[in-house]
Amino acid sequence: MSIAVGLVFLFVLVGGGLRSAEAGCQNTLMNHMRNMWLCAVISYAVALTGFAIFLALSSKSPWPTLDDVRNMPWWAPFGGLLGGAAVMGMIAVARYVGVATFSALVIIGEMVVALIMDHFGLMGFEERSASLPRLLACGLITLAIYLMADEPEGERSASVT
Fold this sequence. Notes:
The chain is mainly α. The chain has helices spanning 3-33, 36-57, 66-70, 79-97, 99-120, 132-149, 153-160.
């Protein structure tokens, strides 16, 4: 594996870790705001402010042309809304199932949809066959996540006390 690929993997791993920290931020925000819609608005307002600052500081980044915008698929700008739906799920249920189980279930959902998207080359991605090894890996990861998330009732009550 090249250093560049290793750095990309590290970046993705850190991003995944930040998703768990995000769940903690969202849960704490929800505890204090007591309204999941307000919590989501605050969360996205902070994100918008941060990204606006980075945009202002990144003078070397190219801007799209009018043709770029015209030729963009209609659904392309909805990534933030889809991410918002994921955040709403995090705000609404992570507190009840725990961040590990919530994250595990998110991983399964992401993995299955990603495998389908790769297989059919959807949304601008290159086709990558849902080969037997990839399907087996998906199944094994799902089994591992199930084992991690399936906490026996006795252990759950013992960890609360």
